Amino acid sequence: MRTRQVHLDFHTSEQIAKIGEAFDAKQFQDMLKLGHVNSITVFSKCHHGLSYHPTRVGQMHPHLKFDLLAGQIKAAHAIDVKTPVYLSAGVDEWVYWRHPEWARRTEDGGVPWAGSMLAPGFHECCFNTPYLDYLLKQIEEALKNYEMDGLFLDIVSPRVCYCTTCTRTLLEKGKDPSSLKDRTTLGREVYFNYTKSVRKLVDRLRRGLPIFHNGGHIPRGDRALAHENTHLELESLPTGGWGYDHFPLSAGYARTLKLPFLGMTGKFHESWGEFGGFKHPNALRYEARAALAFGGNVSVGDQLHPSGRMEQATYRLIGQAYAEIEAREAWAANAIGLADVALLSAEACGESSGGDGQAPKNSLTDDGAARVLLEGKLCFDVVDAEAELAGYKVLVLPDAIRLSSALLKKVKSFVSRGGQVLATGMSGMLVGKDEPGFDFGYRDAGACEFDPDYIRPKFGLDAWDNTSFLVYGQGRRWTKTATGKVLATRDEPYFNRTLEHFCSHRHAPPSGKNGGPVMVRGAAGIACTHPLFSIYASRGQQAVRDMLLHCLAALLPDPLVSAELPAAGRVSVCRQAKERREIVHLLFAQPSKRGQGVEVIEDVVPLFNVGVSLKRKSKPSRVVLEPEGRELAFEYVRGRVDIVVPEVELHQMVVFED
Question: What is 4-91+131-157+212-335's CATH topology?
Answer without folding.
Answer: TIM Barrel (3.20.20)
